[in-house]
Every structure is written in C-alpha cells, then in structure tokens.
C-alpha cells in the first residue's frame, strides 16, 4: 500500500505510513489520525464542505480555525490527499510553526514552489499548507498577499490557526473561512470507544466520562489521556483518569458545592483547604468548580445561574461568584483567600433572605 511508485520517487504520503510494523508503539493520537475526510469526527457541516471541494477539485484558499486538538491539521492533510493522491509529495509544500516562516521564506521558498512546474491530476492545483498560521508575523502575512493572487491559477493556500483574528484582514478576505467548534461529548465518546475496542482497553463508563470531562472537547487530549491512563494503571476508571490528569476530582467539588447549597461553610472551606494543600492551582480549582456547577443536575437551574454569574447589585456591593473569581485569579490573584471568599459568597447566597439581617 505504501509503495505506489509513480515517477521516480515513491509517493508515500507523510501521514499514510500505516503499515502495522510502524504502528508499534506509535502514540495513539498519531496511530488513529484519520486519513480520509470521512473519518473525521464532528463538525459535519464543515467537513461536508471539504468533501465537496475534494470532489470538485477546484479548491479555494481556505482558513480553518478553532481550538487545539479538534482536527484542523488533520482535515487539511486529508483534503490535500483527497485532491492530489499520489502527487501529494510533489504537489504540497507544508510549513508549520516549527519552520522558519519570515518574510524571506515567503519571498523565496513559497514563491519558488508556486513557480515550479509539477505534473498533477487534471484540474488540480499545488497546495501550500501553512499550519499554525496565527504564529506568522504580520510582515510575513503581508508578503503573502500578492503571492496568493499572482499564482492562484496554479497554487492554492490552506491555513490552519487557533485564532483567525491573528490572520490579517486582507488574507482573510482572500480565503474561505471554516470555523471548527469543539467536539461534542458524544463524538469524543464514540471515538474513544472505537480506540478502546481496537486496543483492547479495559474501561468502565465512568472512566470514559471522566476522560470527556477533562478533555473539554479536545480530541487529542482525550486520546492522550486514554493512552496514559491505560499504560499507567491498566484500567480506565474515573479515579485513575483523575490521577493522570491531575485535576481536582469533580466528586470532591460536587460535595463542596452541596455544602455551599446548604450554607455549611465550615465543611465547604475544609474541602477547599484540603484541595489547596494537595497543591492544585487556583485556576484549576475554579475552572473545575465552574464545569461541575454547569452540569450539576441536583442544583435547581436558578441556583446554578446564581452561582456562575457575575452580577451587580446596585452600584456598590456586587455579588461576584465563580466567573468573577476566575477573572481575579487570571489577573494574578490566585490565593486561597479568593477561593475562600468565593465559597463564603456561595454559602451566603443559599441562606434564607432574612438570615443576614442584624
Ligand atoms: N475531528 C477529529 N476526528 C478524529 N480524530 C481527531 C479529530 N480531531 C483530532 N483528532 C485526533 O487528535 C489528533 C490531533 O489532531 P489535529 O492535529 O488535527 O489537531 P489540530 O486541530 O490541528 O490542533 P492544533 O490547533 O493544536 O494544531 C489527531 O491525530 C487525531 O488523532
Ligand atoms: Mg494543528
């Protein structure tokens, strides 16, 4: 399969080295990196558009943007393979953030690639893949503008980035922008189950749920954590996953929120102190609290909203709960005092209205 030797060099696509011997001890994220557009999980509408482009052959310049680990680089590679097949090796120039991509490279390397004559399947174009394009300097992006236009009859550009606003406007206006969203829990779950089956992983449902909880829609992280848990403990259970991910255990947080709901401040403070003493960072604690509260069905919706919100009461005393504490921590005030104050406010909110009157 890997020896389709058309022309002088064997055209082995970089990502298609899937002979079994080579899979040995490959990280699972690479081993299970989709090779075809149809294998990409989630963002189905956008992936459908890519499939149409692959069939049609006339690829526009594209930018794919979105969070890490949701399949942007993979999609671009799949698209390029679908378009160029065996001609991938000659027809694609890939540059990512680890390559030099200053103005000189744009002027020389990209331009000379665009000028080069290559035999491609009929109606196809050479493709320049600029991965992690948001790390290119504005100067280098400026240098791309005209190149993209002048050579557009033979060369098309595919950019991937986390933040599309770091791509200068003129380039955005030359491209079709595809936005990938975080993967849904069910989508990550399905993929994890497939991998567990293929690798014969022992797991229970809570273990997979914990992987999904910690990954927050990032497939790469979910797969990596799955592999680490499996190779570290030999069983994927909730506890093992949280040991690997080293985040505060949602069950502890859940208990703490319940104490807040009952206004049991001593109990709630004791729990947050114990998390603090175990060495968890304030930002990890507060983000886990947010995610637990968000999905805690036992809390009435009203209470959940009150706990999460950042709200203002009149112009003086403001009630600032989880969101506000998060903001302060990000500003650098990640102390136990902030966390304790948040707990105290959550407890106070759960008191009957007249309990605080003197
Ligand atoms: N949508 C997806 N379907 C299947 N596997 C996926 C998907 N997204 C990510 N993965 C897995 O995660 C790995 C990393 O994906 P990829 O390199 O495409 O991420 P990315 O979106 O480019 O992230 P980054 O912004 O960090 O570059 C892949 O090798 C694959 O195993
Ligand atoms: Mg990438």
TrEMBL record:
Key words of the record: ATP-binding, DNA replication, Nucleotide-binding, Nucleus
Localization: Nucleus
SUPFAM superfamilies: P-loop containing nucleoside triphosphate hydrolases, post-AAA+ oligomerization domain-like
GO molecular function, one term: DNA binding
Domain (AAA+ ATPase): residue spans on this chain: 58-184
InterPro entries for this protein: AAA+_ATPase, ATPase_AAA_core, DNA_pol3_clamp-load_cplx_C, DNA_Rep/Repair_Clamp_Loader, P-loop_NTPase, Rep_factorC_C, RFC_lid
Organism of provenance: Cutaneotrichosporon oleaginosum
Coiled coil region boundaries: none
Protein name per the record: Replication factor C subunit 4
CDD domains xref list: AAA, HLD_clamp_RFC
Stored PANTHER family: REPLICATION FACTOR C / DNA POLYMERASE III GAMMA-TAU SUBUNIT, REPLICATION FACTOR C SUBUNIT 2
GO BP term, example: DNA strand elongation involved in DNA replication
Family: Belongs to the activator 1 small subunits family.
GO cellular component terms listed in the entry, alphabetical order: Ctf18 RFC-like complex; DNA replication factor C complex; Elg1 RFC-like complex; Rad17 RFC-like complex
NCBIfam families referenced in this protein's UniProt entry, alphabetically: PRK00440.1
